[in-house]
Amino acid sequence: MDFYSEYKRKLCTPEEAVKIVKDGDWVDYSSNVAFPIKLDSALAGRKDELHNVKVRGNLTIGPVQVIECDPAMEHFVYNTWHCSGYERKMCDQGRAFFTPMVFRNIPWYYKNFVTVNVAMISVTPMDKHGFFNLSGAAGVSRAVIEKADKVIVEVNEALPRVRGGEGELIHISEVDYVVEAGYIEPFSPPMLPPSQEDIKIAEFILPHISDGTTIQLGIGGTPNALGALIAESDLKDLGMHTELCSDGFMAMAKAGKLTNRRKNFHKGKGVLGLAVGTREFYDWVDDNPALAAYPMSYVNDPNVIAQNDNLISINGCLNVDLYGQVSSESSGLRQISGTGGQLDFVTGAAMSKGGKSFLCMSSTFTDKKGQLHSRIIPQFNGDIITTPRSQSYYIVTEFGCVNLAGMSTWQRAEKLVSIAHPQFRDELIKKAEEQRIWLPSNKR
Questions:
Q1: Which tens digits make up the pLDDT trace of 309-345?
Q2: 243 carries an active-site annotation
Q3: Beta strands in 125-185, from DSSP E residues, in sequence order
Q4: C-alpha angle with apex 244: 241 to 247, nearest 5 degrees?
Q5: DSSP state for residue 383 in the 8-state scheme
Q6: Is 204 strand, coil or helix?
Q7: What is the pTM of this model?
Q8: Catalytically annotated residue among 243, 329, 398, 414
């Protein structure tokens, strides 16, 4: 079959492609680097002739033109199931809405409950076999494609081609329209240098990692600090099984620490769902035979995670209460990020032979008024709980690392107070006493 002839038949401008969107449609944009910039702009250009079009995306750096062009939401309503900084701001302003999703259930949600009339996804250029690569959004894009009535791909020559084990490709025969975007540099999240708190937290985790350990890292200061520490350590033959692959893994690989040779599952391959990082990172990911992308339903399945012995899972959180409940996605009722795959990996790491999960945070934060607050609090009041107390494992701040598994309420309170900022410990003890979860013999 002549795939290039089919490609040319389906090739059109962004403005022509978005004409298929109708009033009331659900339109899905794919995640992070696969966000369709040209198509979003073209769809926004149809504002005056469309009404009640629901757009769904996630982890989009912004700006999203269908939001920007329609502050009153008379024409477009934007929904996200994992907030970037931009999407968080839009939710704060009431100009976007959050959809809770556990990452391992994404295909289940789409197959059974979610409507997709039109999917718009950025992809790499087509190869000689007629395949486009779903790049750093491979873990989520197939579920969207398979549910969509119509599929538009936006070809971006700058996207890295991420090799996969399953679900990383879309064939020209599955595509309704092709739009060429030229070369648009994929977004990179801000890579701020690790704070002193990040470095200290990473130092508490490092002793738990041994030769041959398989690692899952989130994104942010602590993962980057840990990646740097591992790169400088004597550790060897580490493995990767992660929801999101970023610069921390690249640092380990370039230092010769990440080989995947001792993995007992997917030996020789670093498994990932999403890939987001710097330009140097995208160059490392591009066509890298040591990496394999899979759908989130596979990567984040606790039963799959648990097949990796000695799996260490490291993720960030926002607050922990004295009972061991963990909030990683909201501050009160304000949505900060998303449910994501934290609980998937907390569960999978606990099931792994020799596995451990770590939830990390600085002990305090400073609000806009300059007031210092403890991230370890007496109890939650309205915050969204991401990891229930019954599944909390290791909690880490710059003041220590404690294991809550199997601990009674008074043991948990004692351990969590011990890693709180010293300024807040007396008040936390007082609250624990009022809540009847403090023994007189507990350490103070």
A1: 999 999 999 999 999 999 999 888 888 888 888 999 9
A2: yes
A3: 131-133, 150-156, 169-171, 177-182
A4: 100
A5: P
A6: helix
A7: 0.95
A8: 243
